Amino acid sequence: MISQEDKKTVLKLISEACKSGARKSKAAQLLGLTIRTLQRWNKNGLLDSRKGSRAAPGNKLPDDEKTRIANVLESPEFAESNPNQIVPRLADQGIYLGSESTMYRILRDLKMNKHRQSSLPAKRHSPDPLISNAPNQSWSWDITYLPSTVRGRFFYLYMVMDLYSRKAVACQVYEYESGDLAAELITDACNQEKISEEQVTLHSDNGSPMKSATMLVKLQDLGVIPSFSRPSISNDNPYSESLFRTLKYRPEYPDKPFENLFDAREWANRFIHWYNKEHLHSGINYVTPEDRHNGRDIQILKNRHHVYQKAKTKHPERWSKKTRNWKPVTEVVLKRFKKVKQSTDTAKRAA
Predict the structure, then answer these.
(1) Can you cite a GO biological process for this protein (predicted)?
(2) Orientation of helix 213-222 relative to helix 179-193, angle to 10°
């Protein structure tokens, strides 16, 4: 901070320079000052009348509330969850501590908020959408590898999910890929969900089990409409790929390969239980796939809306706009793919 004596000295030097024909702005620039600073010093008699930092905003969180939120973020219950998961879970318990942005801000202050991935998915042209507005209208399925203790040998996890609810309606682990096994899995899924003829469209990529003769004949027998990704397009089956990424990024995913088929199936069953009944899915406004599939999400989201309205009534200064949108997701969009209509001759040849 410049002292009063230094200010006097500066003004005297600039005054002498101006008397010698120099421009005041140039003289001030040489001293690292602006002409506005000199004008203020002259006007206020060298006293700095500028105001200090403005008062804290009215909606600033008190330190004790910040500490409470930090303790929740670090608690064993929420240590593995992000704010997008924590906020709705607290709302389900009738608790509102702060918004996601507030929690992320506190995480940044604690240096606990870091991105795990640096790469971004490539953008692709999107075909016309295929819309689902109820369960069991559109399914997606795929197969992923699970490592075994034998080099070069894998177990194969078959997974069928409902696009509207994100529920995994069928899951099994086998020792090899096969159209016969896939046909059995789809049959079990249709029987369990009581699927009628031409009720559901089943989307997949172009793998050999997906397009095998046995699989196509079974789909025709069940009245399931097949749908396939475009050739050489890796992200045309995004929902299943996203599900497999969730599966393999779970903290419980084993660090070591599976010893045998029984271990792989046991772990897959535990994951499906967590995914369907406990996981709050971001794509369906943070309700579980099981609740969404059975229609319970509507009441859950109504209760969350009530919690937010109550919190806003208590602290209206913390909201400049409406509260968070807790309305149910009414439509789920999958890219429209060419559906396969099998003729009788095609089915006979496949058989």
Answers:
(1) DNA integration
(2) 20
Please state the domain extents for the chain.
4-43, 63-85+98-109, 138-285+337-350, 292-333
Report d(CA 54, CA 281) in Å as an integer: 41
Residues 187-220 have pLDDT tens digits of: 999 999 999 999 999 999 888 999 999 999 999 9
Secondary structure of residue 316 in the 3-state scheme = helix
Q: Is 337 helix (H, G, I), strand (E, B) or coil?
A: coil
264 near 155, Cβ under 8 Å?
yes
* pLDDT band, very low/low/confident/very high, at 123 (cuts 50, 70, 90): low
CATH number of 138-285+337-350: 3.30.420.10
**Residues 229-263: pLDDT tens digits?**
877 776 788 899 999 999 999 998 998 999 999 99
Cα–Cα distance, 150 to 86 (Å, whole number): 39
Give the pairing of strands 138-147 and 201-204.
Answer: parallel
Smallest CA-to-CA distance from 190 within 225, 157, 165, 214 is with 225
- Where helices occur in 206-296 by DSSP H, the ranges are 213-222, 238-248, 261-277, 289-293
Partners of residue 147 on adjacent β-strands: 154
Report the candidate in 184, 161, 153 with the shortest Cα–Cα distance to residue 261: 153
Distance, in Å, from the CA atom of 264 to the CA atom of 245, rounded to the nearest integer, reads 17
CA distances from 8 to 40, 44, 284 (A): 13, 13, 67
- CA-based nearest residue to 88, from 319, 318, 316, 287: 287
User: Which letter does DSSP use for residue 321 in this model?
Assistant: S
Coil, strand, or helix at residue 245?
helix
pTM of the predicted structure, to 2 decimals: 0.68
